[in-house]
Amino acid sequence: MVFIDDLDRCDEEAVLQVLQAIKLYLDHEGCVFVLGVNPEAVKHAVEAKYRQVGREGNVSPEVAGEHYLEKIVQLPFYIPPPDDEKIGKFLDKLEVEGKAPAGITDPTAWLGYVRQVAQATQNNPRQIKRYLNTMRLIARIAPQEVTVEGVETSLDRLKLAKVVLLQFAFGDFYRLICRYPVLLYRGQRYARDRQAEGGEPVAAAEDQRRESLLEDLALRTEHLDRFAEIDRNPLLARLLTQEPLWDSEAEAGCYVTYSGAGPSASRPPDSDQLQDDLLHGSVTTIQAAASTVLSQGEEAVRTHVEDLVRRLTDDDSTMRYRAAVALGFLGEGRAVEPLVKALGDEDAAVRRRAADALAKIGTEEAKQALAKYNEQAGESDEDSE
Question: Which domains, from first to last, does the chain contain?
């Protein structure tokens, strides 16, 4: 009996070579192979190989993946994921609560974080152990004291565990805050506002520093989400509202830096990434990308403004809309003329965003164009009545 594990982790050529070798022994009496694999990954490797052959000749990739495995695997058995009860016993065996990382003084809260990793990863034991080991290492090597806005403060290990949890359970959001650390605090504030208002992302009364974009409900109902990653993931929203909370953008950014992201957490994204983020599906990301572009100087602003101006004539109205939003945040006078043309866009949402962008830019030319647009819009409303 031969056991073969993790075949799906091999490259495509190696997968095919192993399967072909197994086929040579299928007719030998008493010879049994046990494969521990992700069948979808193996099917993909087979299809990729036969798709290449198909270009040269005659093999259908649809047949290759499904039927190739069926001819080899005679008795398929799928191991079900562990349920919550088994994961609970697994955590008890690991003594998670009794062996919290150094510096964590609330073992119950720590156990809660570990359970959230389990929930977000479909009770994957490997991911749970990786989180435990990573956090134990980071808790030991991270400094005890850090400087935040000129003030020495303790680096709270539980807050650190919360950011590391984001890394393991909510990878897309974690990568986003590594590019723009300020979005961790803004995301926390946004999630708390939604919770306080029964799910509607309205600014809290006590917070007078809310950016104008978070007061603009229209942005959420047209071509953009307000904070896409949080809007689409209730588990993430719930985590961000849990204690302990970050007190400022600077403090939250500090925890991103020490969460294992390393220098990349404080390194601005490259030009291609910024270009993508300026046309992102989340208005909060567009704003963060625009702030980063403005900090990089005149040449960077000019390059990105030129690209966004081209996008104002894109066939896709969503792209035109997002480009207008980004140009408003960049506030660059060179975008006025293209935005004035966008006031005549066939899509009403694009026209509104172009008008808002001109208002943000605020030059005399922009104000005049906006006044004329508002006057014409008023006349149009009167005619329709």
Answer: 2-72 (no CATH), 84-265 (no CATH), 271-384 (1.25.10.10)
